[in-house]
Write a structure and sequence with these properties.
Keywords: Hydrolase. By secondary structure, this protein is α+β, with helices and mostly antiparallel strands. It is built from five helices and 17 strands. A six-stranded mixed β-sheet has the order 5-4-3-2-1-17.
Length: 291
Amino acid sequence: MRNVKVGVVQMSCTANKQENLDKAIVKVREAAAKGAQIVCLQELFTSLYFCDVEDYDNFELAEAIPGPSTDALSAVAKELGVVIIASLFEKRTEGLYHNTTAVLDADGAYLGKYRKMHIPDDPAFYEKFYFTPGDLGYKIFKTKFGKIGVLICWDQWYPEASRITALMGAEILFYPTAIGWATDQDEETNSDQYNAWQTIQRSHAVANGVPVVSVNRVGFEQDGAMKFWGGSFVTNGQGKILYLASHDKEETEVIDLDLSQADYFRKHWPFLRDRRIETYSPITKRFIDED
């Protein structure tokens, strides 16, 4: 067996950036005290989810990566001996911004960043106003406790992203995310949306034979019009739910993952072996038609 203890931090946020960072650090300490070796924070955890409106003032929330937040978290990672996955609003240069996740190793070293590839533009999720699509490609990070793949929120819906990241050698797929329900929706719609979100990610675990860790925020935002649905979860490489958070409470939980199971799952369900890669070139087309 090769076990890794993963910490999931599901929390609500305020409009105060420093307050949110301080709170996240407290939560990382709680996870480490419970034995966590890798701690994942939710998408854009230093702020409210500001993409509900197109407001130029919100660009002031962005920062360099590495920068102030990664510096603070690096010190914590080194002190506690934990890996930290930190999703931040990156200012790359004047007028160029990304939705980016930094990875800090257990000795405090900055291992690099992943820039969100798939950018939504839906009502209350106007991310294309703020974020340039990622240009670093899919990434894995060789941490003290294993090779991890990091994707971000909207990337969750794309099996291509998880497949490529797994093929690069990721032993765990992490998804910092921010998704919720419009509070004027009915419960059936809410349930259908959450189930679809969880199901697609569990399928990534099954298809690739690796655990998936999805970390969402909670709380009412957007003047009460949005309830971020929490529901953070962890699966093993067969899609089995090992941990499921509530829809309305902050939670800091540590889950023990056996990374050696990947070999078993991939031998008994040999999806990677049986891939017909020579038939897949059409997937690079926007749509397969005559034009």
